[in-house]
Input
Amino acid sequence: MTKYIDVAIIGGGISGLSAAVYTAEAGLKTMVFDTGKSQIKPISTVWNFPGIPEGISGQDLLAKMKEQMLSMGAEYIEASVRELKQKEEAESRFLLEVSSKDKEVDEVEEISAKYVIVASNVHLKPLQDMGVETEVSPAVPSGKISRVVGGSWNGETKIPGLYVAGLLSGISTQSIIAAGQGTQVAMDIISLEKGKAHVWHDK
Ligand SMILES: Cc1cc2nc3c(=O)[nH]c(=O)nc-3n(C[C@H](O)[C@H](O)[C@H](O)COP(=O)(O)OP(=O)(O)OC[C@H]3O[C@@H](n4cnc5c(N)ncnc54)[C@H](O)[C@@H]3O)c2cc1C
Output
């Protein structure tokens, strides 16, 4: 049975989890699909994340971000998105084929979403499925990181409703920037849905 949601996020690393905190808090039904291989995960201590002067391991940083997005109502699914397709329906423009390694069974589920945020960093297949071209990111000297051709901070692609977050947008390779850029994508999607610029101000 196909599940219908508002926002599907492919990749639960730094940018994907950040986006989910915001879209879920704004009331958009949000699911994060993740294969658990964020680049920050093996780092023993991250010293440059503002607000954490004592440092934090990559694993703990991801765990805290995940806890935060779950507390806002987003769902986290340990699974690989193996196909991404476009649909005709305005309210449900994308179909994701998701493969969960649940127990010993390889289960495949279909998810239908109005918005998709591709936050999969080095894994380009979701963008290739959609015919979105990538190029070597000039922001990362190793030459091993790609971005959407002409990538920009707002993460837009040529396909309405399809966004990229994190390094795929062409940003510099620092976690706090990936978190901020993922948040920008979420804010833009929420603003589009609500028909006015979104703000989240706590009391
Ligand atoms: C060795 C190294 C050290 C670093 N050290 C620092 C540091 O000290 N400080 C700092 O600020 N930054 C550091 N960085 C950079 C930081 O890791 C990145 O800027 C950040 O992780 C980018 O976030 P992202 O969301 O784009 O990708 P990631 O955080 O890498 O997340 C991508 C996620 O997508 C998932 N995924 C991929 N394909 C699929 C799929 N088909 N379906 C489901 N999920 C999928 C992956 O499993 C992963 O969890 C370091 C990077 C490296 C390589």
Residues 175-194 form the longest helix (20 residues). The chain has one domain: 3-194. DSSP finds four helices and nine strands in the chain. The chain has a mean pLDDT of 95.
